[in-house]
């Protein structure tokens, strides 16, 4: 009887899935370059400010739209992209991988986390875009605005964790669940930054593009490790 992996390989050979990841890397890079060009030229500023204003109450720009509790939810959700929270999550997952003897994947998870942090620092210093001033900021920030560090690191870390966890199982439902949770969490973190007025929409889109690119690179590396036998294939 054909296993899930056999059926998956017949439907989409491993090489085809790697090609899809490579196309995703190219698309993410293209999106980041386009957004960076729009930001540097100033063409993104008007639309960015309109979106920020649309998320505030016309009579009082210090109040975001929606029920009062939504503001507190956004503050708590945005913390999922903070360094302390993500460090705790990464260490917890790495501990699980160590116990499950998935040590090769630990290196990729750590490379994704540290690499995303370094890339964020370099890009922020390169562009030096000021934080939004069209609306009051509802969270404390003290670094340049482009790209969003929360969005970038959240996308890189959570998507990498989701992809690495998906590579430990051949069960389709679990794989989809891991990836869906990773996408959902990183997306919520990105939106919270705009909702709180600490980033322009172009900041978070560029951050997610850069983080997604880095996560795809790590996923291709994980595929290579499994292909060469360094990391064992998914458990059935």
Structure description:
The protein has 236 residues and is mostly helical. The protein is built from 9 helices and 2 strands; from the N terminus they run αααββαααααα. Strands 1-2 form a two-stranded antiparallel ribbon. α5 (83-99) runs antiparallel to α6 (103-127), α7 packs antiparallel against α8 (172-195) and α8 runs antiparallel to α9 (201-227).
How helical, in percent, are the residues? over 70%
In the sheet with the most strands, the strands line up as 1-2
Distance between the termini: 13 Å
State the major sheet.
2 strands, antiparallel
Q: Give the amount of beta strand, in percent.
A: under 5%
Count the beta strands.
2
Could you say which overall geometry the principal axes of the C-alpha atoms support?
A: globular
Low-pLDDT sequence parts? 1-12
| Protein structure class | mainly alpha
Would you tell me the overall average pLDDT?
Answer: 84
Backbone CA Rg: 19 Å
Helix tally? 9
Helix and strand pattern:
HHHEEHHHHHH
């Amino acid at each position: 009887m054909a296993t899930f992996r056999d059926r998956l390989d017949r439907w989409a050979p491993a090489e085809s899935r790697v090609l899809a990841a490579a196309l995703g890397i190219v698309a993410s890079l293209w999106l980041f370059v386009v957004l960076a060009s729009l930001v540097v030229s100033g063409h993104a500023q008007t639309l960015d400010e309109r979106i920020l204003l649309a998320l505030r109450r016309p009579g009082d720009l210090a109040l975001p739209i929606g029920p009062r509790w939504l503001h507190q939810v956004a503050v708590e959700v945005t913390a999922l992209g903070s360094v302390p929270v993500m460090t705790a999550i990464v260490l917890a997952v790495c501990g699980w991988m160590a116990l499950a003897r998935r040590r090769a994947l630990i290196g990729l998870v750590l490379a994704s986390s540290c690499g995303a942090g370094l890339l964020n620092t370099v890009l922020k210093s390169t562009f030096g875009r000021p934080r939004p001033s069209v609306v009051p900021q509802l969270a404390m920030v003290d670094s340049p605005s482009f790209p969003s560090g929360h969005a970038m690191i959240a996308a890189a870390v959570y998507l990498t964790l989701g992809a690495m966890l998906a590579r430990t199982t051949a069960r389709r439902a679990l794989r989809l669940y891991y990836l869906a949770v990773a996408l959902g969490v990183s997306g919520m973190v990105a939106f919270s930054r705009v909702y709180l007025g600490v980033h322009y929409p172009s900041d978070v889109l560029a951050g997610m593009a850069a983080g997604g690119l880095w996560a795809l690179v790590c996923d291709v590396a994980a595929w290579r490790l499994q292909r060469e036998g360094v990391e064992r294939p998914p458990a059935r």
